[in-house]
Amino acid sequence: TQLLEQSPQFLSIQEGENLTVYCNSSSVFSSLQWYRQEPGEGPVLLVTVVTGGEVKKLKRLTFQFGDARKDSSLHITAAQPGDTGLYLCAGGNTPLVFGKGTRLSVIA
Amino acid sequence: DAMVIQNPRYQVTQFGKPVTLSCSQTLNHNVMYWYQQKSSQAPKLLFHYYDKDFNNEADTPDNFQSRRPNTSFCFLDIRSPGLGDAAMYLCATSTPWGQGFKAFFGQGTRLTVV
Q1: What pLDDT, in 10s, does the model give residues B27-78?
Q2: Which among A40, A93, A99 is the nearest to B42, CB-wise?
Q3: N or C: which end of chain A has fewer CB within 10 A?
Q4: Do A73 and A80 meet the contact criterion of CB atoms below 8 Å apart?
Q5: Which of A44, A97, A100 sits opposite B45 (nearest CB)?
Q6: Which residue in A has a C-alpha nearest to residue B92's C-alpha?
């Protein structure tokens, strides 16, 4: 099973700040997914990135897939308390296996 | 409408008493997954099915088994639950890996072992 490393593991910021979380691996992936999970719920798929260098935007969230398809980043602009949750990346040529996640807390 | 449905949402079982968790899907996806998620951790893959082809992760305990009688349903059986098996159990479905990949999760079953 290919390993995905996420950083930071925990992040606590004030409302309105920007942040970036990272998902890295030594392996090449055909695609990567980002999910957000709220307490007591299952993860919800935010985006799938497929092409090296690809950038996708979802409102205030910007996702980027590295040129070599080994890493990805998620940037949130002007974070809001509603962005609080566990952000998970998943990918690989094997079935859906997650990184350890980044737990984000946005304080009003 | 919910597309991946897990029942029950909350399950309390006694130590050592077999328990079955269920999952159904309306998406007709080929792939179904079971994950275990403990507090403050990421979901850990236990098994997945590609159609009827069953795949067991190497570190999934023998105490955990699964059945997929048809495309729509998948079950997780815990033969002798221990206190360490208390967790959220997540079911997911997906299209085959590749272009247009889509995955959906159920809301999970929170298992308590007493």
Answers
A1: 999 999 999 999 888 899 999 999 999 999 889 999 999 999 999 999 999 9
A2: A99
A3: C
A4: no
A5: A97
A6: A42
